[in-house]
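Quick note —
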Amino acid sequence: MPGLPILLEGAKRSPGGWAGQARGGKRAGSRLYDHSNIDHAALFSILAEHEANFLMTYDPAPEIVELIHKHDFNAVGLFVKNGHHNKMREIVITAEPLFA
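Predicted structure written out below.
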């Protein structure tokens, strides 16, 4: 992910967003996104070290919940509907305090 620090350069507190990849055995990321194979631990580390404001969603896989705790991010779980109207759980993640 050599390009992410470049994208964050100068962003400071400007809004930004990145699409997360399905984790925990799901393959929706590779089907829906051109660049779905990313190093999630590296992404979380880069975002934790930078001042950019971000908002991202992920499936609530255990490894993602662990990264949220490790980097002291804030998250809230919610249900979304997919194209087949099935309810699925997602996590919305940010460095900003939620519901403060």
